[in-house]
Amino acid sequence: MKNFTSRMIINVIAIPLIILMIRYGQWPLVIFVTLVSFLGQYEFYRLLRLKGIEPVTIMGIAAGLIWNLTVYFFPDLIGPVLMFCIATLALTVLFLPVEGATLRISTTFWGLIYIPVLFSTVVLLRQSQPEYHQGGRLVLLLFVTVWICDSLAFVFGKWLGRRKMAAHISPHKTVAGCIAGLIGAVLTVWLFRWLDWAPAMLDWKELTIFGLLVGVFGQAGDFVESVFKRDAHVKDSGTLLMGHGGVLDRFDAFFIIAPVIYAYIRLLMALS
Amino acid sequence: MKNFTSRMIINVIAIPLIILMIRYGQWPLVIFVTLVSFLGQYEFYRLLRLKGIEPVTIMGIAAGLIWNLTVYFFPDLIGPVLMFCIATLALTVLFLPVEGATLRISTTFWGLIYIPVLFSTVVLLRQSQPEYHQGGRLVLLLFVTVWICDSLAFVFGKWLGRRKMAAHISPHKTVAGCIAGLIGAVLTVWLFRWLDWAPAMLDWKELTIFGLLVGVFGQAGDFVESVFKRDAHVKDSGTLLMGHGGVLDRFDAFFIIAPVIYAYIRLLMALS
């Protein structure tokens, strides 16, 4: 119950704040994304240490910060900056003990790619539209759809679910919950359209695909993060957000679904 | 001596062929880069298996091929395609045993990033210039400078070197050899300028920096690959090219120097 109360308090503060940052976009959104990336990456490296692997934490986190700033401030140089960061970060192995260096650099990079690089697609999506507020509509739709999908999956999974989706990864997730999440995601995008909040570039068919993508890849994102936690034998990725687990736990869906939606939107833009 | 002969034969065939592909550019160069990436990635995954880690080889190599084709055929969609590939490749962990999945996915990705993604900057560099043949000059300068730097480091290291550069990583590389390589790299870019083969966009100061970058980051790239081999307790990354070690051994400098030069050229273009 204490968990439930602190969850509610955080929701009441965080959700409106996140919505505001999404609507405003620009540097407030960048700060939010950078902060989540930073904390998430830190938690991920902690999970690795629990597995007995010592990632090159400072270098990985520094590269994550540089990446997030580049995405916003020098979007035309994303490619070269990313390549340069990877190449120079690789040089870190020269200063590590040789034994185990391959694992240390691999996991450092995976923490960089999985969290800051993938999550930065939220900023890329926000900046992707010629009409700036339309980017806000895209990101808002993404966040609200993920939240509703998650909540419905949680509630219906508790009430109706018996059959587990993948018990070895996530013992509480049920098939019924996942289906409820998927349906909820599609209903959310339709609701946005009905309220006239949906991004103008998407017709109803494209919106429905948006909802289905969130329902499938968002929930898959939850499972991916669960694998990393289970592999490290912990239940929560961190304790920063009381009752919410860690930052990774809160945003796990986005690390997978945000890049997928970003690719989907860019593909539609290229085809139109 | 047998090694030396087979080395010479390969050099006599391979060097002119590579130069031709660089000059022509387009799909012949893409095929060359894709082939090197594929073989290199395969060798890298073999090194991992020698360390007792089972990367998701097929997925990693498939992503590498998709990446190389995207860089050439859909350069405007590189960002979204990369994000989509990473996100969907991450889903592989859902089908692996949980124990060890983090390591397996991390190393699979590192093989993808370190080899195809970094090496694809050769194609990006080739395509980067408004005047197409100028891109060929850039890539040719890069390759020839690396080759001369490597050869001088090898020869002078053997003749003059006593003091080791980093004996725990590469027992044969000496300080004298590395300095000879660095000087050789700078002399090569000056020679190119004198012969009027240098890319038109670079003045002599920028060319000198080009040479210094190759001398430093190219040789650092050799050491990086040596760390991965030593970590796996092998001497050569593979046996495909008799006497040359593996493909990784032959192209190790490029995985680091090509992205650095690409970033350097893009930076100069952005500033001009």
Model description:
Two copies of one chain form a homodimer. Chain A is mostly helical and 272 residues long. The first copy, chain A, has one domain (2-271). The first copy, chain A, contains ten helices and no strands. Chain A has helices spanning 2-24, 26-50, 57-73, 78-90, 101-119, 121-126, 132-160, 175-194, 204-231, 247-271. The longest helix of chain A has 29 residues, at 132-160. Chain A starts with a helix and ends with a helix. At the A-B interface, helix 4, helix 5, helix 9 and helix 10 of A face helix 4, helix 5, helix 9 and helix 10 of B.
Q: How are the elements arranged and paired?
A:
The structure is a homodimer of 272-residue chains.
Chain A: H1 2-24, H2 26-50, H3 57-73, H4 78-90, H5 101-119, H6 121-126, H7 132-160, H8 175-194, H9 204-231, H10 247-271
Beta-sheet strand percentage of chain A? Answer: under 5%
Rounded radius of gyration of chain A (Å) = 19 Å
Span of the ends, CA to CA of chain A:
50 Å
Low-confidence stretches of chain A: none
Instruction: Using a beta-carbon cutoff below 8 angstroms, give the protein chain pair with the largest interface and the number of residues from each chain.
Output: A-B, 59 and 59 residues
What class do helices, strands and sheet pairing of chain A give?
mainly alpha
